[in-house]
Amino acid sequence: MEKPHAINAYQLNQLTADPAVKRLLVTIENGIQACQQHNQPKLIKVILLLHNSIDKTIWPEFAEQSTKFYSQLLGLAEQSNYSACQKLLVKLHNGWQQTHSSKKV
């Protein structure tokens, strides 16, 4: 039986093939979709993937704040509070999308 939060090799290869911000946006979109579908295992998997993608050596302060954010998000997901999770993920997505768009200009 597969572990409920396991990330398979195909998903990891698929994510590493795209540019970093695009991977991040797609991952967040998957989390938003999981909220809409009330799919707790997928939502938790996305949150753990986002948390594990943080590079704590480059910007420790950002990593610390992100860890707190993902811990809060994980708590909401474990309580099946999909509405609150979705709101936070949409804000996160919009923020990264704006950052990514402003760098292209």
Describe what you observe in this structure.
The chain has 5 helices and no strands. The N terminus is likely disordered.
Number of domains: 1
Q: How would a textbook summarize the main sheet?
A: none
Helix content: over 70%
Helix/strand-derived category reads: mainly alpha
Tally of DSSP β-strands? 0
Salient structural properties:
105 residues, disordered N terminus, 77% helix, mainly alpha
How are the SSEs placed, and which strands pair?
Blueprint: H1 9-17, H2 20-36, H3 40-52, H4 60-78, H5 82-104
Helix pairs in contact: 2-3, 2-5, 3-4
What is this entry, summarized?
By secondary structure, this protein is mostly helical. The protein has helices spanning 9-17, 20-36, 40-52, 60-78, 82-104.
